[in-house]
Amino acid sequence: MILSAAADDREALLQEARSMRAEGRVPQALAILARLERHHPRFSRLYEERGHCYILLGDGPAVIEALQIAVSLNPTLPACWDMLEQLYRLLGDAPSAEMAAQNLAMLKQLPPELVVANSLYSDGDADLAEDVLRAYLQRDSGNVGALRLLARICADRDAPAEAEALLKSATERAPDYHEARFDYAMVLLQQQKHLQARQQAEWLLRHVPGNRDYLKQYAAACVGLGDHEAVIDLYARLLADGPASGPEAADLHLWRANALKVAGRQNEAIAAYHASLAAYPDYGVAWFSLSNLKTYRFTDTEIARMQAAEARADIQDMDRVYLCFALGKALEDRGEFASSWRHYERGNAMKRAHGPYRPNTADTVSQRLKEIFTPQFFAARTGWGVDDPAPIFILGLPRSGSTLIEQILASHSQVEGTQELTDIGRYAGDLCGRDTESGLPLAPEALTRLDAGQVRALGERFLAETRAYRRLGRPFFIDKMPNNFWHIGLIQLILPRATIINVRRDPMSCCFSNLKQLFGTTNQPFAYGMADIAHYYGSYLGLMRHWDSVLPGRVLRVHYEDVVNDLEGSLRRLLGHCGLPFEPACLTFHDTVRSVRTPSSEQVRRPLAREGLTQWRNYEPWLAPLRRMLGDALTSYRN
């Protein structure tokens, strides 16, 4: 395999330093290594070479320091451990010498290929490490260490399904290999397989009770399953037993605050967010989380603190992004719209620069879906899938009002609200391949190759896997995942009796609401630029028109503005489509006590307000380009 230019340059500089040392030109070798460190500070072998240089200079402390850095970055360097053992013994440091000897002995017991692969991986040469591992596993397919390392490489290059299979094999072969099981649970979490991840965390905690990493993993799985109340006390326990300040304490306070927020305990959540900031004052995500409550109002002092933190040159990029969105909301609440917009604009620009969005992907996928899901496609598959009316899918664009519709329906005695379930999107990705940037299915034509048995199995799998989120035993449950509008064809195929509700909002209101909302780190990449969100809104309209054409009457369209203007009339229409009797409790949805995880969590705990309908007009001077880009969508969105 050919090394990248950066890696090639790195190896060339290292070789040059080695040659200098061999010629006795140690100062020149050290100068080259200093240059190498500036460009590749985590390259372990440069520190190993620096240790060799200091040996020639007779500088024992400098040798030890260099070698300690080397093994901290890359524990699979036998020569470093060998030199450290000898140096520690010369210094009379028996415990450190014994530790180095143990590490060296462990490496000598491992297959040489595994040592090489670990070393390559530690230095960032994942492709080369993968080549070594795959070749080795052809000869020794049961080596659990090799399986675990290959799984980590697969996870790094966004191949979680392969990583999961490798780690499952490793834990079956070596049940007590806790490190592999921990990695297994992490990969399951990354794929939103929360129940299985919690089962693995529970296994680890049975064998190593009280392990902080295992407890955090268990808590993350509980959060994924919607068990927020359970983790509130768990995070408090971890805080009581851990450091009072610093990043770990800040994270624990933040996670506890998030759980309190979802559980509807807002005052406690606010106190926990403040505790996170006390533990780590410039923690951008904690400032943003306060603003994301939508109801919190910042003080002059707090705004000044955020402005000072955002202006610092040494702050982390994502902290700055979080602070920009938090300041945008804080200043918006004060009516300082020009300054607010500057912060929203800056935050969006930075976020978009981290992962540029390619709108042509949405166009390509939309066109393929239209070509595949025709009336003939569905007619040929009549009677397929699972004949179960339990699921209610609420979909549309983010910030369209879908959480409001979910809260209204979840106030009905026969309907349970769950959360934004990822199962349908995951099935589409598994079957069709997934674009790494947008998450959209790359080859939806794969669905045409499914037979009736496979389709039914997929529907049954959905009902089985979502059962973990259903706690109340009600006959109907909600899957409120906005992005499922891409997958209406798949939903119809596997769950032909499911209810589908499309929530739509005025394009200016919807697009502006997206522009001022910071989503999760990898979610909704189209939401950070006017051109992108305008284009995406158009793609959404076009695809929904197609679904309405090929599945007439199948999807109920609900306009957010209609719900605000006539709640009871909209409710009766909504319940009629779901086949549910009218219940007055749905009109007082804000009194319903349940977990809500979306950015609208606090808003849907209050009666309907009209300000959201025209909020974007406060920013009208800066949104003129968006208006132009939306074009005829401004009027045709109701058609």
Architecture blueprint of SSEs:
Blueprint: H1 5-22, H2 26-39, H3 44-57, H4 60-73, H5 78-91, H6 94-109, H7 112-122, H8 126-137, H9 144-156, H10 160-173, H11 178-190, H12 194-207, H13 212-225, H14 228-240, H15 247-262, H16 266-279, H17 284-291, H18 300-311, H19 317-333, H20 337-354, H21 359-372, H22 375-379, E1 391-396, H23 402-410, E2 415-419, H24 423-432, H25 452-465, E3 476-480, H26 488-494, E4 499-504, H27 507-515, H28 530-550, E5 555-559, H29 560-565, H30 567-578, H31 611-614, H32 624-630, H33 633-636
Parallel strand pairs: 1-3, 1-4, 2-3, 4-5
The separation of the N and C termini measures: 55 Å
The percent of residues in helical segments reads: 55-70%
CATH homologous superfamily of the domain at 360-507 and 554-612, by name? Answer: P-loop containing nucleotide triphosphate hydrolases
User: Radius of gyration from the CA trace?
Assistant: 28 Å
